[in-house]
Amino acid sequence: PAHAKIERFGSRASDLVALIDSYHSDFVGGCWDFGHGNLNYGELQTFGIRKMGKRLKALHFADNLGARDDHLPPFVGMINWEKIMQTLAEVDYDGCLVLETVQNVRLPDHLKESSMRFLGDVCAHLDSLFENAKKELKERSHINRTTPKIVGMLSAIMRCSTPKMEVWILKS
Predict the structure, then answer these.
(1) Which of 39, 68, 88, 146 could form a disulfide with 93 if both were Cys (CB 3.0 to 4.6 A apart)?
(2) DSSP sequence for 104-141
(3) Residues contacting residue 73 through CB under 8 Å, at least 6 positions apart
(4) 78-116, pLDDT tens digit by residue?
């Protein structure tokens, strides 16, 4: 999207890209906060993530309900985490991440341990989504790399006027 809901410098991915690129260094990068991205872009935050691409060096994982920065655990708010993890795989993200929640702030002490286990399970599920998305991309990439060979073989078969021909359709 051309414009974010909040209009100030740094609220748009294009601002961050311009700032990061002005340093002409691979050591300068940006942090994407998914809660802020949801407030600013909603479902369209994946466009900002793609625009940032390899400039992304850190991520803040938090969810919200779209009205304020609630710092909820992922999957508790309205962010589409499957789509987010696919997008991170597409940009080949390999930086660090921070789980930025307020899960334990008001919990009684005896509940904090189970809450931390829950957050660990959430992180493991996010990791699983990310790994599956990377695997799927790799498989699609392999299919895309082999497609020209198959097309070339098909055209060679057609030139030979072979009476029997098999046609393979690869979907990505």
Answers:
(1) 88
(2) TSSS-HHHHHHHHHHHHHHHHHHHHHHHHHHHHHHHHH
(3) 62, 63, 99, 101, 103, 118, 119, 122
(4) 999 999 999 999 999 998 888 988 877 788 999 988 999
Q: Could you tell me which residues come within 8 angstroms of residue 92 by beta carbon, excluding any fewer than 6 positions away?
A: 54
Confidence bin at 154 (pLDDT 50/70/90) = very low
Provide the β-strand partners of residue 72: 63
Encode pLDDT of 32-59 as tens digits.
999 999 999 999 999 999 999 999 999 9
Backbone angles phi, psi at 2, to 5 degrees: -70, -40
Q: What's the chain's length in residues?
A: 172
Q: How many CB atoms lie within 10 A of CB 98?
A: 12
